[in-house]
Amino acid sequence: MDSLDLKIVRTMGFRPYGPRAMAVDHLKASYIAAQIGVEPETVKARLARMETAGFIRFYQVYPNFRHLGLDATAFLFRIPDEDRKASAIARIEPIDGLLEVHNFLGPEMCVDLSHRNPTDLSKKLRLLAEFTGDAAPVRFYERHMPTVDSTLTPLDWRILKALRYRARRPIAEIAQETGVGVRTVRRRLDRMTAEGSLFIVPAVDPGRAPGVLLYELLFYTTPDADASALRRVLGACEERYLYHYVPASQALGNFDVLLFAESTGEIEETRRRCRDIAGVAKVSALVFRGWTEYTDWIDAAIDERIRA
Questions:
Q1: Does the pLDDT value for residue 252 go beyond 90?
Q2: For residue 249, how many other CB atoms are within 10 A of its CB?
Q3: CATH of the domain at 284
Q4: Can you tell me the distance from the alpha carbon of 104 to that of 77, in angstroms, rounded to the nearest whole number?
Q5: What total number of domains does the chain contain?
């Protein structure tokens, strides 16, 4: 992978959540090409290459969790013992509403899970404390999603199901599968996209990006730093970064950046270079060992709403 591949993925969106609705056409080659200043045919060729390599597994639709009565939060656990860490990952899998587990090199492990209310979250955290031995994990990030005022109909849910793992399929196919007209599908899809009822992003497998490592840099800023510090960091990482966000706890940085590197040496070089940027006091790295998604329960939740 190179910087152009990363710009394409960054333009499409990397994470299936966010505080704002997505652009309706953000997966189209013409839209991506216009955003990054290349020809649409170049984008199509790069997407095909990433799909063939398995880095882009498919294009997925995620419902806004507010329609499911859910919030989602990730926590960083520290498990110094490697055997206990492996055992904990296996024991975590059956937890209801589990979304992702990020296994980092070293003792750190991030668990991203959904929850219906504070009581439900507390119950799940007690289970995780038992499995990991860490009773005081740090809140890493929230899956912020737009507030939604409307209720999705069974037809809306059927359209979401038709797109769940094939988000770029033609509207005519969805219309045929759901038994309604093309205009109806397009109108409902445009409405759901505009109001933030769904997120359409590529599902990626970082382990299938040949010759690169996925990692995060956690940035701690100086007391006098302002928004320009983030701009300087992203400018310095332009050729390698995929995504950035503000963590839920400042114990994990004032902002974090997700990047690719070709070697561990490059990770350390980037960390040191970014540490010298004005407004940055400290930079820590978390290198991914594994990234696993657990989202079959979302399909079951969609089916339940179709039946209702």
A1: yes
A2: 13
A3: 3.30.70.920
A4: 10
A5: 2
